[in-house]
């Protein structure tokens, strides 16, 4: 990092103590921005970096709820609006016991660049709670969502802040959240939240968009870096949630064989190819552990607490959570001949892992570019809702075009700054420039 950037980083870190995930996300972006600051002194002059790294607003609130036995619980809710230079705050809600303000800030910060890369009019935000949905009854989930929205609703709006899903928040939770918003405000504002069911304002592509988008991006990246295609390759995909499931579905359609997936308890290996319908039944319908895959596929193997990155593969898609792919895992992937890693999750690879992959000619697609398909389709959902239209025909082709646009933007920017195929640098600078230019134009000081 240059001295200027280095001292900026130190300043920001000292103002946000204990937020290690935010510091990591910040570092990963700032270390690539020196060349663009050299080229555009106006960004430095107007303190664009300082503005861009400070959230516009951060809301923290109490979420009390009652379990089925009448016991009272208290969780903490968060919503960070990071940047609204190019549109309303936009980003998902995460319900997971590990969630802290630092987690939400890192996710909202990443979202700034991701949303800008889509070329669509969406600013950045993220929210969530340290609530653990695992093992909760449907009624408990409903009561929690209602209490969460009872606090959050006053900060939301189609032109202000539009949440969606993330870890632990799918169509069911979005339904309960929207229902409570509607109940309190007495307004049917479909565009106030995305990831809705296609039956009441959602688009059918949203559920699949992040996973499909990762595979579209990966296909383009393989072509550009290795002159290869997905067809005939073996792949491993970590996680078995929304992103992982539909990445596996699209990998299969594209001719790859997915031989492993996981959840936080263990890894399933199926040399015949993971059966995605089984994963959907286990995770979306029955909401049970991935180990149950063995019941219908007895020839598969389950490794409790296993490391999915030990399994030899051509393509690896980390689609579970942050920092799940570490330096040693990257070394294993390289040793076993992996040629591409594309991030479905947000910040799943540590900086050390990224450096190992990049220096060993493994094509590396960072999450802020590769997993932008979800938020892009959310922006399309907002457009449909704004028109009060019942036509949800935003298609897979439109998603494909957007992912190709993002891939091109990353590639061209990396070339422009003399680092061809450095998708990390390309994504950071391309996203940064769009937001920075809007901030300059608005005189946001
Ligand atoms: P889901 O809740 O649907 O699935 C998450 C998956 O990851 C589950 O298999 C879960 O296992 C596993 N997982 C979660 N936390 C951990 C952990 N601490 N250690 C190990 N495994 C874990 O979430 P999504 O699929 O929606 O999100 C996955 C990732 O993709 C996240 O990083 C999210 O921010 C990112 N993302 C999601 C988008 C979307 O559209 N949903 C858009 C862009 C990015 P278990 O069930 O055992 O907890």
UniProtKB/TrEMBL annotation:
SUPFAM superfamilies in alphabetical order: Aminoacid dehydrogenase-like, N-terminal domain (SSF53223), NAD(P)-binding Rossmann-fold domains (SSF51735)
Residues bound to NAD(+): 210, 242
Residue span, Glutamate/phenylalanine/leucine/valine/L-tryptophan dehydrogenase C-terminal domain: 203-443
Catalytic activity reported: L-glutamate + NADP(+) + H2O = 2-oxoglutarate + NH4(+) + NADPH + H(+)
GO terms of molecular function: glutamate dehydrogenase (NADP+) activity; nucleotide binding
Source organism, top-level taxon: Bacteria
Active site per database record: 126
Signal peptide as annotated in the record: none
Any one of the GO BP annotations: glutamate biosynthetic process
Residues marked Important for catalysis (site): 166
One cellular-component annotation, GO: cytosol
Keywords, alphabetical: NAD, Nucleotide-binding, Oxidoreductase
Protein residues bound to substrate: 90, 111, 114, 165, 378
InterPro entries: Aminoacid_DH-like_N_sf, Glu/Leu/Phe/Val/Trp_DH, Glu/Leu/Phe/Val/Trp_DH_C, Glu/Leu/Phe/Val/Trp_DH_dimer, Glu_DH, Glu_Leu_Phe_Val_DH, NAD(P)-bd_dom_sf, NAD_bind_Glu_DH
Assembly and binders: Homohexamer.
Record-stated family: Belongs to the Glu/Leu/Phe/Val dehydrogenases family.
Role of this protein: Catalyzes the reversible oxidative deamination of glutamate to alpha-ketoglutarate and ammonia.
PANTHER family (UniProt xref): NADP-SPECIFIC GLUTAMATE DEHYDROGENASE 1-RELATED
Protein name per Swiss-Prot or TrEMBL: Glutamate dehydrogenase
Organism name: Methylophaga aminisulfidivorans
UniProt lineage: Bacteria, Pseudomonadati, Pseudomonadota, Gammaproteobacteria, Thiotrichales
């Amino acid at each position: 990092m240059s001295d200027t950037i280095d001292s900026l980083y130190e300043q920001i870190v000292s103002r946000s103590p204990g937020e290690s995930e935010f510091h990591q996300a910040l570092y990963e972006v700032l270390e690539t921005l020196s060349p663009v600051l050299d080229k555009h002194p106006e960004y430095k002059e107007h303190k664009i970096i300082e503005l861009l790294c400070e959230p516009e607003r951060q809301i923290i609130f109490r979420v009390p709820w009652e379990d089925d036995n009448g016991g009272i619980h208290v969780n903490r809710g968060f919503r960070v609006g990071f940047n609204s230079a190019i549109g309303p705050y936009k980003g998902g809600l995460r319900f997971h016991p590990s969630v802290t303000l630092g987690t939400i800030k890192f996710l909202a910060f990443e979202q700034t660049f991701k949303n800008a890369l889509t070329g669509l009019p969406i600013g950045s935000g993220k929210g969530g709670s340290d609530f653990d949905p695992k093992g909760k009854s449907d009624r408990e989930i409903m009561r929690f969502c209602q209490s969460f929205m009872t606090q959050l609703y006053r900060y939301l709006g189609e032109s202000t802040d539009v949440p969606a899903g993330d870890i632990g928040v799918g169509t069911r939770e979005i339904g309960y959240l929207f229902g409570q918003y509607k109940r309190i405000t007495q307004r049917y504002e479909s565009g106030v939240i995305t990831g809705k069911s296609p039956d009441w304002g959602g688009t059918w592509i949203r559920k699949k968009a992040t996973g499909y988008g990762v595979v579209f991006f990966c296909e383009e990246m393989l072509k550009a870096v290795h002159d290869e295609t997905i067809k005939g390759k073996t792949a491993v995909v970590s996680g078995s949630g929304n992103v992982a499931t539909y990445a596996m579905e699209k990998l299969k359609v594209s001719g790859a064989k997915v031989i492993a997936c996981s959840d936080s308890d263990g890894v399933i290996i199926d040399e015949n190819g993971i059966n995605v319908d089984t994963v959907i039944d286990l995770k979306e319908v029955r909401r049970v552990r991935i180990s149950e895959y063995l019941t219908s596929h007895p020839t598969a193997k389950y490794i409790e607490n296993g490391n999915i990155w030990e399994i030899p593969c051509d393509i690896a898609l980390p689609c579970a959570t942050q920092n799940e792919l570490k330096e040693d895992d990257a070394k294993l992937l390289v040793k076993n001949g992996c040629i591409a890693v594309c991030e479905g999750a947000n910040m799943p690879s540590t900086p050390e892992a990224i450096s190992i992959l990049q220096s060993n000619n493994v094509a590396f697609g960072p999450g802020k570019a590769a997993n932008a398909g979800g938020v892009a389709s959310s922006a399309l959902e907002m457009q449909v809702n704004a028109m009060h239209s019942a036509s949800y025909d935003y298609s897979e082709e439109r998603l494909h075009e957007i992912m190709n646009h993002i891939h091109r933007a990353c590639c061209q920017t990396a070339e422009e700054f003399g680092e061809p195929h450095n998708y990390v640098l390309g994504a950071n600078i391309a996203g940064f420039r769009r937001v920075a230019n809007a901030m300059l134009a608005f005189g946001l000081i």
